[in-house]
Q: What sequence folds into this?
């Protein structure tokens, strides 16, 4: 696991999201956004990406500078962490971890869901991620010694979500965690295949799930 710092003003994901949702504090998106709503516990892997927060993000984010910023972030911050051409997740996975709820339904490792064991995960929060509103992950495979991935705005965590069990606890912090996560695959590890992503059936190939840089 590695924490990488970046200039939050240069890569201003936060400003774009605040404008998109019309809130000044994303930690209070569950209260201050005009379309906010509460949910029963999101403990079903088929529905944890089906909230109004997710739909609004995926339906509207293309109308902002989000992807321009994201591609620059990948080129400037992420690519130099690798020694070869990389494939990166074209559409990052959006998360809102509301108070009293989960952001991911079940503890898992990404290789359980069609992902390559060679993928590298990145966790990019836009609010402070701490204690029970962040991701909990084991330190080694099958060790089950889960600890929180505490981090702040202006930081991205590089970690092994493909092979380490991880998940969420019910958020008892009183504030929401808003973040994205995305996956990177060294080009040398890419194998053309017929696999599809679990959440939206995107083909796990270059041009669909991945872009190359």
A:
């Amino acid at each position: 696991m590695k924490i990488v710092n970046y200039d939050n003003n240069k890569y201003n994901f936060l400003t774009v999201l605040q404008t998109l949702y019309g809130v000044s504090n994303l930690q209070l998106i569950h209260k201050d956004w005009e379309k906010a709503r509460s949910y029963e516990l999101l403990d079903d892997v088929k529905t944890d990406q089906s909230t109004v927060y997710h739909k609004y993000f995926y339906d509207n984010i293309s109308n902002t500078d989000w992807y321009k910023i994201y591609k620059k972030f990948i080129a400037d911050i992420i690519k130099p962490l690798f020694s070869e051409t990389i494939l990166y997740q074209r559409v990052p996975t959006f998360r809102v971890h509301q108070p009293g709820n989960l952001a991911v339904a079940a503890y898992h490792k990404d290789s359980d869901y069609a992902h390559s064991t060679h993928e590298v995960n990145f966790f990019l929060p836009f609010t402070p991620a701490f204690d029970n509103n962040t991701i909990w992950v084991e330190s080694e495979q099958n060790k089950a010694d889960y600890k929180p991935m505490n981090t702040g705005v202006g930081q991205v965590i590089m970690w092994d979500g493909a092979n380490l069990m991880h998940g969420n606890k019910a958020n008892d912090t009183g504030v929401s965690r808003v973040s994205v996560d995305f996956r990177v695959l060294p080009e040398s590890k890419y194998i053309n295949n017929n696999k599809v992503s679990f959440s939206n059936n995107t083909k796990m190939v270059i041009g669909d799930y991945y872009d190359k840089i």
